């Protein structure tokens, strides 16, 4: 390609918004990224993380050649050597220990359909140790599977039908900018906007009410609202009687706790709770949950109690309502099985994602002998960094497919250079918010010797004797994944032509009240939970690290550490590229600043039994008490990941993390 040209493309980042792009290319180089005004949801607006993909492609820090660590130093090797050695190691491990001695460690850093290809690779390999659940949203998705049978959100425009909107623990201005645009719009039209969050964030600024809450206690607030609803007779009795099961179990829970206890535990005044009962009964009321509040030991139960509130107030299945958490109907539109060939695996073992380090260290039959990492940076992002590091170091061979020398890549034995979004063709979507799939063409050649992940898995497959399973072009793979969507007119050609195409999902989920649970009803008491060996009832439950559940720990470490998502980086992806991000910022609530005598820019250490991190103080304008907040994603080079402090214990329904369920101490230090 020569000269200047513009093309439509798509953001690949793991984000609520899945934006449409317009990309300028000059002489084979990405020059600029902007929003596609014709995208029906994202409407020409994109965030700085999207724009930074230009720097991520052109940066001189990109990894451009295959690397092998020899005597502790990385040396450039040829692709032939890398692929031959890695495939020989895979074959050897499989032969000696079985294929489950290989772990595929990944997250969801790229929203392209073809990021499912490694699953095809490992299935055809005969199986592997797979990660299940998610440190991101595992407990909430599992909770909604228990309640509704699936996690589905209303289409973005459905917010126009709402009378009230409750933003419950979602940091919309930072993480979900197009929802923020809708909020600004509906607010002008008179919608009542409420924010419930321990931190007074950007969204709280435009809300009619900001309700600060003690972290991890949202389930109690939901119980309080339902208690007031029942006292005042405001619940939707018709919906409860016709379309739900288990309400009587919920009533037992509601009756087991007093309003005084709820006020004390949540630190939300009774009057506010009563007002919320009216808000929920005088709908339609849309609830947009974030992922923060389910990263606690009681996170699944918390989301289930909020679902229960939304359901018992009659806000399920109606325009303008909804218990919006994730939107997995989007991802489920695709034919994953055709792409990943699950029937090909002969053996399998699963580790819950949050627990991968502990499992690596304790696995014996077989032990983990090799780890392949793609689309993830576990040494920074997975909780309990010290344990993750110990686990990864204990394994004979670690191979990382990467674009940059991340903390994880740095400790690998082989690093394979991966192409970036504009260097390969794919289609992109997010199962978090809207239901449009976007087209992303190949716009430039991959730099240096970087290759697409699909190419890397294909070359390894050929050397391991199952090359025929990979003997397809990218286009053929994409068509495979489109599956029956093609019969509904959603073909690859149409996606290419239109750039963004709506998937056939329910725009108002559950409008027919046909739930996907076993009873086909909304389940206050979950049969799926029971099938999995849990008590399927809702319950009273606390975070693992709180004054209510562990008094001595709370005396030793009195402050709640929230480790929320950074504004200018998707997780760890931009810290090395933006100078202003290369230090640790420790935000503290005013009460802590007062007690500890902290001023802005003071140096502090934040610590608990798992680790310690140092940084510079900023004081939160408004928040719940006893809050310390450090953005996640920081690199070891610039002060280190806050996950040095977080716990790898899983949440109550087993598939999520407890990243925010973390008590710490804080002290001023001399610099
Ligand atoms: N800028 C930016 N945007 C992103 C990302 C990013 O890294 N950077 N990552 C993307 C990804 S992968 C995800 S999962 C989403 C996450 O999107 P969000 O869910 O919006 O983000 P989080 O940072 O997880 O936390 C959200 C909010 O939860 C609040 N919170 C924490 N604990 C509690 C609690 O106990 N109760 C209540 N009510 N609130 C609580 C925090 O104060 C914060 O305001 O963002 C996506 N968008
Ligand atoms: N303390 C704390 N920890 C957290 C969170 C938190 O809120 N607090 N949030 C959690 C959440 S919500 C999430 S989703 C996870 C995210 O965890 P990760 O997905 O591991 O985080 P990223 O920093 O996005 O790292 C992804 C890496 O994948 C690489 N990458 C991007 N695209 C590709 C590709 O196409 N191929 C390959 N091979 N590599 C690619 C990037 O260069 C980057 O280094 O972190 C979790 N960790
Ligand atoms: S990171 Fe999210 S908001 Fe930003 S451009 Fe990408 S999809 Fe849009
Ligand atoms: Mo996430």
UniProtKB/TrEMBL annotation:
Keywords: Iron, Iron-sulfur, Metal-binding, Molybdenum, Oxidoreductase. Signal peptide: none annotated. One of its GO terms (molecular function) is molybdopterin cofactor binding. Pfam families: Molybdop_Fe4S4, Molybdopterin, Molydop_binding. InterPro entries: Asp_de-COase-like_dom_sf, MoPterin_dinucl-bd_dom, Mopterin_OxRdtase, Mopterin_OxRdtase_4Fe-4S_dom, Mopterin_OxRdtase_prok_CS, Prok_Mopterin_Oxidored. Its cofactor is Mo-bis(molybdopterin guanine dinucleotide). Belongs to the prokaryotic molybdopterin-containing oxidoreductase family. The keyword Oxidoreductase applies. This is Oxidoreductase.
């Amino acid at each position: 390609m020569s000269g200047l040209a513009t093309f439509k493309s798509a953001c690949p980042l793991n984000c609520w918004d899945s934006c449409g792009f317009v990309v300028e290319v000059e002489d084979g180089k990405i020059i600029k990224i902007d929003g596609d005004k014709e995208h029906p949801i994202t409407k020409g607006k994109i965030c700085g993380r999207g724009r930074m993909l230009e720097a991520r492609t052109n940066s001189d820090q990109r990894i451009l050649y295959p690397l092998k660590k020899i005597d502790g130093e990385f040396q450039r090797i040829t692709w032939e050597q890398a692929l031959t050695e890695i495939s020989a190691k895979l074959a050897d491990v499989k032969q000696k220990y079985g294929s489950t001695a290989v772990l595929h460690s990944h997250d969801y850093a790229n929203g392209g359909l073809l990021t499912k290809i490694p699953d095809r690779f490992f299935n055809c390999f005969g199986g592997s140790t797979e990660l299940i659940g998610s440190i991101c949203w595992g407990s909430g998705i599992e909770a909604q599977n228990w309640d509704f049978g699936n996690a589905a959100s209303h289409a973005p425009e459905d917010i126009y039908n709402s009378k009230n909107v409750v933003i419950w623990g979602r940091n919309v201005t930072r993480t979900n900018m197009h929802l923020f645009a809708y909020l600004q719009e509906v607010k002008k039209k008179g919608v009542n906007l409420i924010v419930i969050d321990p931190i007074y964030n950007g969204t709280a600024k435009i809300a009619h009410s900001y309700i600060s809450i003690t972290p991890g206690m949202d389930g109690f607030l939901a119980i309080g609202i339902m208690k007031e609803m029942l006292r005042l007779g405001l619940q939707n009795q018709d919906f409860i009687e016709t379309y739900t099961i288990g309400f009587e179990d919920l009533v037992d829970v509601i009756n087991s706790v007093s309003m005084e206890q709820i006020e004390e535990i949540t630190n939300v005044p009774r009057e506010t709770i009563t007002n919320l009962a009216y808000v929920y009964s005088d709908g339609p009321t849309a609830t947009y949950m974030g992922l923060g509040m389910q990263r606690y030991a009681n996170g699944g139960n918390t989301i289930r109690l909020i679902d229960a509130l939304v359901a018992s107030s009659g806000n399920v299945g109606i325009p303008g309502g909804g218990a919006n958490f994730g939107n997995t109907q989007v991802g489920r539109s695709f034919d994953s099985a055709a792409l990943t060939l699950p029937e090909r695996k002969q053996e399998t073992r699963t580790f819950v994602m949050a627990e991968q380090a502990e499992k690596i260290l304790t696995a014996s039959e077989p032990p983990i002998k090799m780890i392949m990492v793609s689309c993830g940076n576990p040494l920074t992002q997975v909780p309990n960094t010290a344990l993750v590091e110990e686990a990864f170091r204990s394994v004979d061979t670690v191979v990382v497919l990467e674009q940059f020398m991340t903390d994880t890549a740095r400790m690998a034995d082989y690093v394979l250079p991966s192409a970036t979004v504009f260097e390969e063709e794919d289609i992109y979507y997010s199962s978090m918010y809207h239901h449009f799939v976007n087209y992303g063409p190949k716009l430039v050649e991959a730099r240096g010797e970087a290759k697409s992940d699909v190419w890397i898995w294909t070359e390894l497959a050929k050397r391991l004797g199952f090359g025929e399973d990979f003997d397809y072009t990218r286009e053929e793979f994409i068509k495979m994944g489109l599956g029956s969507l093609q019969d509904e007119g959603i073909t690859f050609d149409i996606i290419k032509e239109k750039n963004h195409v709506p998937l056939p999902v329910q725009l108002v989920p559950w409008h027919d009240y046909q739930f996907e649970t076993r009873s086909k009803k909304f389940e206050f008491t979950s049969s799926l939970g029971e099938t999995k060996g849990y008590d399927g009832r809702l319950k009273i439950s606390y975070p693992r690290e709180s004054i209510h559940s562990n008094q001595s720990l709370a005396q030793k470490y009195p402050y709640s550490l929230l480790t929320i998502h950074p504004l200018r980086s998707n997780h760890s992806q931009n810290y090395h590229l933006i100078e202003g991000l290369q230090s640790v910022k420790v935000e503290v609530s005013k009460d802590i600043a007062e007690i500890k005598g902290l001023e802005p820019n003071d140096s502090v250490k934040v610590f608990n039994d798992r680790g310690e991190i140092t940084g510079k103080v900023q004081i939160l304008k408004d928040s719940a008490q006893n809050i310390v907040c450090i953005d996640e994603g920081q690199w070891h080079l610039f002060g280190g990941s806050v996950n040095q402090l977080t716990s790898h214990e899983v949440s109550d329904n087993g598939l999520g993390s407890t990243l925010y369920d973390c008590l710490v101490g804080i002290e001023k230090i001399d610099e």
